[in-house]
Each structure stands twice: as structure tokens, then as C-alpha cells.
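Q: Start with the shorter request: fold the first protein.
A: Done. Sequence, then structure:
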Amino acid sequence: MMVTSRLVPSLWAVLTLFCLIADPVQSQVVDYVACDHTTTSCQCDPDADVCEFNLQVSYLQTFTRYRVTPEGEIDDLDGYIYTINDSGMIEPFQSDQTCDLPGCTEAATVDGKTFRPYFSFNGHIAGPTLIVTADQTIIVNVKSTLRAHGITIHWHGMFLRNTPWMDGTGYISQCPINPGTSFRYIFRAAPSGTHFYHGHIQGETADGLLGALVIRERDNDDADYFDLPDQHTIVLQDWWRQPFLSMFALQHSIFETFYPQDVSELPQVQRDRYNGSIGPDETDLGIIPFHSGLINGMGRHRDVPYARSRLASFEVQRGNRYRFRLVGGQSLYAFKLSIAGHKLSVIAADGFFIQPVEQVDYIIIHSGERYDFVLDADQPIGNYRILAETLEIDDSGSPPYASLNNIAEAILHYTGADTPVGPNYADANSETPTCTPANPCRAFNCPFMDFHESYNTICTRVGDLRLLNPTPADELPTSDTDDDVLQT
């Protein structure tokens, strides 16, 4: 009887909580946010109580447009191949095989070269940026149109207190969403800050299933910068020439397979096995050769000329200050990000405001990390290169080591400058920071103590960061346990 009396109230508490979440009271204001293949960001009304989004998960092919049904569903069996011409514009690969916008998805041109399948949210890579306000209730209806693959969606950075079953970690907190079925995620938007969402089974994230999740603060009206997450959110990715499972199998094969050749060919030349790359502190970095990098799903493979590539562009107006949100969506390599001609002020880490770190030349970001920085648009009107470079080095020389030039890139576009398109990408200001003993550079989030002195670079490590608003002492966790709690 004692056991029953203790279990029944708990059961009712769980059922009551479930009902409150699954069926919000009718008096609440619900914003059914338009979010489909035409939208790269989906923003909820800050005055709404509940924000509801729809995400369709599909397995598509790069450089391909897909027809969209009258019901708004992407038909993954009705695709048309497109390419990039010498003017940097999308055109059909065959003139009689076309699919016009908006009745079709836009083709994912990724790095301008790699023709391979990928996972998508609403046809995009990366998925749309979901923007809500702190403490709103988020509802995301996920529909899987996959043929033979289970998925879950993890909300990276969300605490999900009282709703751990919404965490989206496959086989741990949730069974996979089966092919052809749907699942509704419901959780509270907390904490505020820059976060992201991504697939959480096998290599779904590496294959494109990710997007930014921005929880805007309710009490940040006195900020001295423009905060436009629909325009200034940067999602970094390392992009591979084959899907994750294929790369996994190749990496574990007994002979070298990572060199330029058709991926379907048996290797014809004997080579030493790839032994990985190293960083400036001479530690191991990657066991798989870098292929290309993407920013918001766009980039340029080293073999592709600028004229036949498409890069993400972020517009600013001279004289203003802007908050940028940086998401480390890559699966393997850390990147160091810089913007030609501009110093950066880092103001938040993993969703929490920190005491600003100013005059930053490079932000180093690893998988899963998020950093917010403020940019002063104080340079002459023009286009400036945004460069994200891996930490890999050519160790055949001596410090400072030459870079392997494995990069992702985009454009910072000032209003009034020439519209950035393929043929003029190369004309963007590509000035890199000059680091001297008298004027050393500053690198934020170094994964080691210091660069070699020859780099003339000062490190700010994550251990040096301090919260802007320290956590109250009575909210800090302790190592003490209460035996009475453990026994109840």
C-alpha cells in the first residue's frame, strides 16, 4: 500500500504535465510560423505564447531541384539536375528538364563540385534558422519522408527541464522517427542564446541535417548593436565527398582510398595509408582528409573557380554595429574564423553572455560550440571575405607553419557595394590579420595554452572567460548529497 500511495501521485503528475504540454490551453496565442522550402529563416512573433514550426526531413541529391506538391511536400522522386554557369547563376543541366521556383526547391550547390546525396530540413542545407523568444513554448512537427532511415532531432543547448523525452538523442531518450511517420517535439525555449538542432543517429549531421536555433532575450533592448538573427547567423560545416557511412567504411579499410579519383573506382596506385593531419601545437587533428567547407550550405571546393561557385553573403550598412551568431556545425575539424579588415568582439559563449573579449582577429570554434560576436561596420563600402580555416598545418617546415589552406568562405557585403556573385567573389577584400611582435594578433578559444612565439598571436582560452552576470551562489550545484534524498 505504501508503494502505491507514493507512485500514484507521481503518475498523475507525469500525466498532468504531459497533457499540459501536448494540449496547450486554448487561451494561449499560437503563432503557426510559415516555414517551408522557400524560407531560410522562420521567425515567431515575440508576443505569442506558442511557436509552431513544420520541418520535413528528406534524402535528396545535391545540384538538384525537386518539385513541391500542392500540399507543400517535397517530392523526392521528381528531381531535375542543375549546374552553375560561368556567371555564377543556376541553370538546368538539360534545357528540356527544368523545374521553376517557387514550385520547386532550390538546388543545393554546396561546394560547387560534390554531387552526392544529403539529408535536408525543408529541402535546405543547412536547415532554416528557427527564431523564438525566451520562455515561449516551441512546437516542431517533424515529418520524415525518408525511405529507410530512422531519425531523431537533438536540440543542442536546450536544457529541456521536465521534458527530457524531447531531447532527441536516438535510442537513449527517444526511439527513432520511422520512415514515413511524424513526431511532434514540444519544449520550453530556455536558455536564451545561440543554439542549433541536428540529427542524432549515425552521421545525419555530417550529411547535412542541421540548422540554427536562436532564442532571443526578452530584456536586451538597451543593446548597442543590431540583432538580426535571420540575416547574421553563420553555420559552419565540413563537407565530405561521400555520405558519412561510406566515409566511415573507407576510413576503416586496409588500403589507402583517400586521393583524387572517382569514388567508385578501385584504387590503381599503391600509396601509404593516410596518417592524418596535425595542428600548430603538433597534436593530431583529423583522420580523414579535408574535402571542403560550407557556410550556410554554400562554399567553394579548391578545384572550382569563383565564377562557378555560390557563397553565402551577409549584408551590413556602414556605420552600424551588428551581432553575429556563429554555430559550429562541423563534424570533425575545428575552424578559425576571421573577417578581412575587421576586428571582432566576442560577447557570448554557448548561449550565455560573457564579459566581452575585444579586438579579436580569429575565433576558433569546434564541433557543437556557439559564439556570438559584435562587428563594427566601420570599413569603406565594399565586399570583404569571411574566412574559416582549419587548424591543420604543413609540418614539413618550422614554426610558424604554413597552413594547408583548407577553408570555408563567405562574403561580408556592405550596402552600396557591388552585389557579390561568382565572377566578382575574387575581388572581395581578402586582407588577413598581420601579426607582429609589436602588434600581436588575438585568437579566441585556443585549444592549447599558446601558439609558438613565432606566430605573434595571443591566446584567449575558454578557461579565461567570465560570465557577464555571474550565477548566484545559491544556484550553483554542489558535490554534497543528501542520503535522505537518495533513499526516497
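Q: Next, the second protein, separately.
A: Sequence, then structure:
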Amino acid sequence: MLNMAESGEKGAPKMSKASKKNKKSWRKNVDMTGVNQFLEEKRFEERVGGSFADRPDEKLFTIEKEAKIVPEKRNRKEVKKLRCFANLEGLPGVKDPKPIRNFTLKPEDRENPIVRDMKTKKIKSGKIQKKFVDSKLDRQKFLKTKEANKEEALTRRRTEFDFDLWDTTQDPKLPSPEWIKPEAITHAALGTGKFIPKSAKSREISTGTNLPAVEVPDAGASYNPSVGDHQTLLWKAAMVEIEKEKEIQKIERQTTGMFPSKKNAPTEKSYMQEMSEGIVELNADTENTEVEEDADNASEEDSEEDCSVTPGLKPKTRRQKRDKRKRMFEEQKKARERDLKIRDSEVARVKSIKKELHVEELQAIVNQDKKQEALEKKMSGPIKLSNYDYEPQDIEIKLSDELTGNLRNLKQEGSLLEDRFKSLQRRNMIEVRVKQKTVKRLKRK
């Protein structure tokens, strides 16, 4: 029987014109690779369930009804989200740490199965307890009243508003201490939230600001604003962007703008001229004239000093001392007379003094009002609590072509979490913070 070689075998190179006169030479020199490949393909098709050419398209191809989600590649240069935002999104791919959770059993599930079987047998035999019949009738009666009051409940509206829903100034009503002990009143008030400690009654907590916890947004930020309000809000946002652009231009002017351009850059000739300005050989004539003028001035000053000789100090005579004493007494007398005249004149100008005092009082009131206005202005903004200045939140606006007119198609602008975070900074609840970049340093081996 012919023993064929496998398709993977590689023997010695076969000669193109080899002898095939007998079986031995024919087996040795014949090329069986094509036959082996065909047989191998047949065996593979038998293993996988038949020929692919004979199979229908439904078995060979599948139609994907859901699109595959291709994960987006994260840009490494892009700044990561804050940890507080990442916590809101949750952890992807994490299983429930407690798969089997407690749940509330219904009354029929809580009932003993033996007792439940006995009840069902009694009901089937016709023995029904009275409480089951009554409960069924009560249930039917309740459903009827509910159906009858359904339309009334839909149209029911409050017509009198004689109270303030958000009023918190009302004192909590506690029982009278005439017939209840104070310990019992305190114990009952702790559970209802009506108990106020003594220290909390007089406590004043202030953060140095007058801003409300939740500020009313601008009228132009509505989903369906008027034209005037919307244009006003757009103008405010435009002014903010103009100020930012001015700040950028100022930095550009004070850094890059201070240096000359390539066209006006100093050349080698101008550099040499600037460096050689202080050399004596180049400016010899001008310096010689300056030296001669200095010498003339010095000689004139020396001659003046020789001529002006200070005389020696001589003691004063008795006559000089007497005249000095006399002049002193006369000056004192004139000063007393001058003070007396001033007092007499002040008595005559009482009205003008009153006017001056009135003007000073008015000026003091004006200064006090200015200080109060400055304090209120300071309390209407954030106080610097850290090394960083407060940066206001960007104004959330919608352009004219983005206004929808209804809440269904409205696209969200901004973040509620960021708005609350900025509000805490404005109200001095937390300090202004900046995200710190951590630099990984390789440890020395």
C-alpha cells in the first residue's frame, strides 16, 4: 500500500527529471504536496461541520443589533477631573459588595405556612371567619370613596394663605411646666427637635458676609427670557471676556512687548558703540575741559575760606544781659495781651463757632456712613482666607440660537456641584483652593 508523506514534511530537493520506472523511484520522486493540502482541507471541513461553500449565509454571518462601545483614548495632557466629580460618576465595573440584601416581608409571607394551609382549607369548605368578610367589605368601601374623591382631589386648591410657609421665627410650642416636670419636657422635646439649649439661644454664627446661601439667578438666564434681559446678560458676559483679554494683553505688553523685534534688535556696531562710551581715549577733549573747570572752582573756594575767619566767642556784658531780660518780659506781656484779645473775639464769634461745630458733626456723620458702606461692600464679597484670590464662576449663558423655550429640550449649562463650591467660597465658609500638581521623584537606588 502507498504510504503518503504528510503535508508538513520537507525532504531533500526533488529533481525535475527523475526516474519513475518502478514503484520505489516513483514514491521517492513524486510531488504529493497538492494532494496533502486538499485532504487536509477536507479533514478540517469535516471537523467544523461541513463545507463552508454549502452553508447558508445565516450560519456564516451574524447581524449586530447593538453598536460596540469603543473606549475613548484619554489624552494625557488633559487635566483630570476633580476627585469630587469622579466620586459622583461611580466606579465602573464594580460589583455590588452585598448581593443578598434584607427586604421587608409582606404579612402573607410572614404567616406560618401550616396556619395558611388551614385557612385555605376552611375557605374552600365554606367556613369563612367574620373578620375576613369585614375586611373585604371595608376594602371595597374604601376603594369606592377613593374613586369618588378622585376628581375632587385633582381640583382641590388652597385659596387662603394666612400663614408663612417658611417662617422660622415662631417659638416651638412646648407643654406648660405647671403640671409637667422640666425633665419630662426636655425629654419629649429632644425627640421632636423643639428643644433649644441655653447656649444656642444667644449664639451668633457669622461668616462675615451678607450673601444668601442660594442666590437668585439673573433674569436673562431663564430658559425663556425676554429680549432685554437676555441681551443684558450677554453684555455682562462680554464685559468679563473683554477684561480677561485686557489682562492677557497687559501681560504680553510687559513681557514680550518690552523686548525689541528681530528687525530692531541691536547689531554688533551698536553694541560696540554702547560698550565704548566710557573709554578715556575716545572722550579725551571733553574730559580735559571738565577737569580745568573743576580746578578753577576749587581754587576760588579755597581763597574764600581763607578770607572768612571765624572770630572767637566773647562773654556778654551786663548791659546786654539786662536788655535781653527786658525784651523777654516785653514779649511775655505782648503774648498775654494777644491771648486776651483772642478770648474777647471768640466770645463775639459764638455763632461762627457753632456753625463750625455743626459742620464737623455733619462731616463725622458722612465719614461714619462711608465706613458703613465700605463694611457692607466688604461683607458682600469674599474675604481673602488663603494665598489665592477668589475667581468668580463663569456666567452661564445661552446664545440666541440655543434658546429652546421649554425645559424638555433645554441643554444643561455648568455644574451644580461647582456652583455650590463657589458659593461656599463667596460666603467665606471655605478658603480658596487650587489643585496642586504632585511631581513624582525617582528614588535613588
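Q: Describe the second briefly.
A: The radius of gyration is 52 Å. The chain has a mean pLDDT of 81.
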